[in-house]
Amino acid sequence: MLFSSTVFLFLFLPIVCALYLLVRRELKDYVLLLASIFFYAWGEPRYVAVMLLTIIINYVGAILISKYKCKKLLLLLTILGDLSFLFYFKYFNFFVENINELFGGHIDFIKVIMPIGISFYTFQAISYVVDVYREEVEPQKNIYKLALYITLFPQLVAGPIVKYHDVADQIEHRTVDFEKVAYGVKRFIVGLAKKVLIANTLGAVADKVFTQPIDQLDCMTTWLGAICYTFQIYYDFSGYSDMAIGLGSIFGFKFLENFNYPYISRSITEYWRRWHISLGSWFRDYMFMPIMFLPLARNTAISRSYRWVMKKVGSKVANAIMTFIALLIVWFSTGFWHGAGWTFIVWGLYNGFFIFIETLTGWNRDRKSIGGKALQHFYAMLVIILGLVIFRSDTMNYAWHYLLTMFGAERGETMYHLIYYVDRIEIIALTVGIVCSAPLCSKMLEVEGRSQLRIAAVNLWLLALFILSAASIAASTYNPFIYFRF
Questions:
Q1: Residue 118 lies in a domain
Q2: Which residue among 81, 163, 331, 473 is least crowded, i.e. fewest CB within 10 A of its CB?
């Protein structure tokens, strides 16, 4: 069930909100839990069992970790249980197909269909057991409350990835008041407009371009497709995150921000501090930092090897090598998390490469001059756009030739002029998308200290956005969510 569907907007959400606000306090969690399971079952009924098994594994695993001394072994077994589901449903096809291609084999297999949202709720489950292992939180004794954390429908199928220690207190104690509900509704409308009015419009252009054979595209058309996709994916995913944060607020939860105007970044390092913040912080907290602390462990093969390297080449070079290894693992994992395909892996390593170079050279430091800042911003956007071409392409061969065409190294015989891809609506959507990717209206929903006239103007503007969005949904069948693939 999509947030931007008529069933969700005019049936599911009003019923759930009414029930949640009307029932007694002690029943609110059960209303949300049942609604979340129904929400997931609407699109993936046969995979509800996988999600429920994930809940049981992590519920039992966390309790055992808190009780027994063999904590590391129990943590490892619990995480392996989580990752086994992810591996089978998301990566089984990829590995068998590559084995067949590499060795010329003919292994027959039934293709596995990936459950929606498995990447997101698996990472949330892992964050829970790791937080218990680190003694940052107590194990949840009530399985229904743990199930609510993992299945909560606002962020179930496309994030943001909510770490357990960020919402543990809110699961136990939260309040719902008019101010939170009003903010949540407004935030939801902003996200809906981003998704429906901008992302869908630009997505139609990007799809037209990227589905053309590469020999039928010219330089201008490839740049148009790349730029439209760059803004489509931002407004698609940030729009979904806005809707998730808004829904969370309606039900008394405060989710952390997932996007912070990433396209104003002046380095790839800064970009990843602003883009999909919940994923970046997850990899930082649960993968990058543990890897960086491995040399500090007592009398392990890694710590002994690190000390030997440090003696041979010095601490600075040893630290650079360790950082490179950590970034390599993290960015390979980041790419692979996004999808079971070589384009995603290359895209992840591509981002990691630029972050490593920026770290070594200091390019990610702010420049004082306007010219220096402008150069940094141009560099960052160029790297981002080219990277997203790889991300969007179905194969690396297509991505390579697409990039060559962008820079005039190859020239296709285009069958269509630009007017085939864009009309006034698409030009308006792209212009609005570029302007709104900067924090010009970032305080629009904060009404403290505002005059009643300005509050009324904002509310009328949001009402108009909702009406336009609803009309667009009713009139169009093109309504994909990019991150549902992951």
A1: yes
A2: 81
Does the pLDDT value for residue 447 go beyond 60?
A: no
Does residue 103 sit within a domain?
Answer: yes
Question: What pTM was estimated for this model as a whole?
Answer: 0.90
End-to-end CA distance of the chain: 16
Q: How many domains does the chain have?
A: 1
Q: Which of 90, 165, 180, 173 is nearest to 135 (CA)?
A: 165
Determine whether 256 is exposed, middle or buried from the number of CB atoms within 10 Å of its CB (0-12, 13-18, 19+). middle
Token pair, residue 142, equals 């009530």
Q: What does the alpha-carbon distance between residue 208 and residue 292 come to, in Å, rounded to a whole number?
A: 44
- Exposure of 301 by Cβ count < 10 A (0-12 exposed, 13-18 middle, 19+ buried)? exposed
Inter-residue contact 224 to 205 (CB < 8 Å): yes
Note the pLDDT tens digit of each residue in 276-307: 999 999 999 999 888 877 776 666 777 777 67
Structure token digits, residue 227: 């730029």
Per residue in 362-375, is it b (16+ CB within 10 Å) or e — as a string? ebbeeeeeeeeeee
**Which pLDDT does position 350 carry in this prediction?**
96
Tokens of 43: 């699109």
Kindly state whether residue 306 falls inside one of the protein's structural domains. Answer: no
What residues are labeled active site?
A: 338
Nearest to 164, CA basis, from 197, 195, 133, 200: 133
Is 48 inside a domain boundary?
A: yes
